[in-house]
Amino acid sequence: MTEKVFESERIDFIKPAMELVPDYLEMVNDIEHVARFISDRLTPYTEEEERAYMRDKIDNNAVMFSMIEKTSGKFIGNTEFFDLKDNDAEWGIVITYSMQDKGYGKEALLRMIDYGFKDLGLDRIRITVFVDNPRALHVYEKCGFKEYHRNKVDIFMDIRRKEASLL
C-alpha cells in the first residue's frame, strides 16, 4: 500500500493504488447504495475499465486520494479535486457502502476543504450533488457549502476560502 499523504482523526489519505482496484470495483459497482449517487451509469464496470481509469488517474497525477481507516486498514472510499482552474476546483467523494453512516464523509470533507484552501491554494471549492441525495446535501450544508444553482437533477454548491475561515 502506498504511504499516506496526509491524515485526519480517523482517516489516512493515500494516493490511489492499483492494488485497491478490487475495493474500487466493489464500491462503484454497488448500484443501489453507491453508483446511483455518483453517476448516471447504472451498469457495472469491468476490472479492465477500472484499471484503465485508475491508471489514467495515477499517470496524470490526479488530486485523488483513497481513504483508509486508520484503526483497521479498511478501505473507506475515494475523494478527488478535479476540474482545477484559476484557484477553483470541483470536489467529489465516494464511500463504499460498508463504511457509510460512520461520519467518514463529513470528516473527509472538512479535511479536504482544509487541504484545498491551504495546500492547493484554492479560493473556491464546488460540489455537485444529485437532488435525490439528501444525506450528502445535509453534510455539505453542515460543512458550510451554499447552494448557488439547481435543476431537476443536480444541486450546485460552493464554499469560498473566506467563508471557510469562519467555520
Would you write up a description of this structure?
With 167 residues, the protein is of the alpha+beta class. It has a single domain (4-127), classed as Aminopeptidase, CATH 3.40.630.30. Helices cover 30% and strands 32% of the residues. The chain contains five helices and eight strands. The chain has helices at 21-28, 47-59, 104-119, 134-142, 161-164, and strands at 4-7, 11-14, 63-69, 75-85, 88-95, 124-130, 146-150, 154-160. Strand 3 (63-69) and strand 4 form a beta hairpin. Helix 1 packs across helix 2. It is globular.
Poorly predicted residue ranges: none
Oligomer: single chain
**Annotation field: number of helices:** 5
Q: Sum up the overall morphology in one term.
A: globular
Total beta strands: 8
| CATH homologous superfamily title | Gcn5-related N-acetyltransferase (GNAT)
Based on helices, strands and strand pairing, what is the structural class?
alpha+beta
Strand content: 25-35%
Query: What is the annotated CATH architecture?
Result: 3-Layer(aba) Sandwich
- Rounded to the nearest angstrom, the distance between the terminal CA atoms is 34 Å
| Secondary structure: helix percent | 25-40%
CATH-assigned fold name = Aminopeptidase
How many structural domains?
Answer: 1
Output mean pLDDT: 92
Topology pattern, helix = H, strand = E: EEHHEEEHEHEEH
Radius of gyration: 15 Å
So what's the CATH class?
Alpha Beta
